[in-house]
TrEMBL record:
Protein name per the record: Cyclic nucleotide-binding domain-containing protein
CDD domains per UniProt: CAP_ED (cd00038)
InterPro entries according to UniProt: cNMP-bd_dom, cNMP-bd_dom_sf, RmlC-like_jellyroll
Superkingdom as given in the UniProt entry: Bacteria
A matching Pfam family: cNMP_binding
Amino acid sequence: MNPTATPDDYKTFLRRFHPGIDDASLQLLLAELRPLSIKKGEFLIQAGQVQKELMFVYSGVQITCFDHEGTEHVTTFFYAPSLAGLPDSFLYQTPAQDNIRALSDSEFGCISFQRLQELFDESQPLERLFRKMIEAKLVGLITRHKEFHALTIKERFQRFAQRSAHLFHLVPHKYIANYLHINPTNFSKLYNSTRW
């Protein structure tokens, strides 16, 4: 299963952050997106590049990862409907420290950093929407950070299953185990003992 997001899906998704935003503001944003497709295994962004566009995931699954001493570490999954990006690189237009790689053939709608800033000047509701999205991202990162430090591997697995169970069918389990900081053998035991 590889779900594809529609413009209506994105309106619903974006309204989760800013329920009062009007259709005209959302249409202003969505009308600016240009299509982009990449194949499984290709990089959307590589370390050292500046992320010049924000990507709205239409289909496929992607990961954010970084290499440390020859070992890949997975930090984020992207899938429809969501935004794919490296906040530090995109927001400050600085070279990325991480990579975004497609785990499956993927399609996106993209908007440039410059055009997004222009839309913020044109539309206060859009600027407010993105502020609320950044706030939600920050809270989510803090929550995950605490989980990685305070929860057992079983509790981390269970929280992930509650939030993102569909990824077990879309993503090779080695990437989920890596993301959760769980040894692959222990991950397999937890997965096989779970009643789906």
